[in-house]
Amino acid sequence: xxxxxxxxxxxxxxxxxxxxxxxxxxxxxxxxxxxxxxxxxxxxxxxxxxxxxxxxxxxxxxxxxxxxxxxxxxxxxxxxxxxxxxxxxxxxxxxxxxxxxxxxxxxxxxxxxxxxxxxxxxxxxxxxxxxxxxxxxxxxxxxxxxxxxxxxxxxxxxxxxxxxxxxxxxxxxxxxxxxxxxxxxxxxxxxxxxxxxxxxxxxxxxxxxxxxxxxxxxxxxxxxxxxxxxxxxxxxxxxxxxxxxxxxxxxxxxxxxxxxxxxxxxxxxxxxxxxxxxxxxxxxxxxxxxxxxxxxxxxxxxxxxxx
Length: 307
Description:
Layout: H1 2-5, H2 8-33, E1 43-48, E2 52-55, H3 61-80, H4 95-118, H5 122-125, H6 129-142, H7 144-147, H8 171-180, E3 182-186, H9 190-193, H10 196-209, H11 216-222, H12 227-233, H13 259-268, E4 270-274, H14 283-306
Helix pairs in contact: 2-3, 4-14, 6-14, 8-14, 10-11, 10-13
């Protein structure tokens, strides 16, 4: 592991790069000073195919000039920009610095547009077609990787288009989630529940809470054991948004459905993380994205009500 903690490879790259450039310059100088033995007709004496003779003419000046320019450019580049090991270059340029500058420039250009949205509530922003188009782009670029292009999520990643929210679905809570992220933790509870049979019984009781198919006899046996789960999910299993404990009485299953899936959750637990976006997105972008995500569930609710 010492190879990865020492500065050997930095020095190796720097020395190899500089020596290679200098070797090219030395080769050019040497070729210009060295003269091959030639005959009286300026040939080297090498003959191919009977009459094809090798001449000893000097390199074209334009070629030598380009070679010199290339060597000078290479040394100048290493002096001004990073390229020789840990030497940062006199200009102090970095790819991250350029990225930050371009992002700042872009944010400045769109600031007047976002200023209008920041003066509006998320509910008002959700009614603005232009804001929703911007929110959709922000979502597709940053959120779709986990929640899907249609925001319907998948196993382990919440559906953002329904009305089921672990921490609450009002705009203020959504904005807090986006800004600070969330870490959901379901600890392994098998030891607290009891034997493997007790775990199976509790799993069936959990299924019974949502009216899902279950073994009613096992559910009755598992009901008293559910008390260890009630600390987070509540005595009726309706969850606790304050700590992100899911509602077990609905038909929404984030990490899988059925007896086996619930038993695995009880036995092994689960930790899920939603990253914080305040370090990547601006407050204005988070404000518009909040309105967009909140509006997704409102549209689904409106369609359901219409039916």
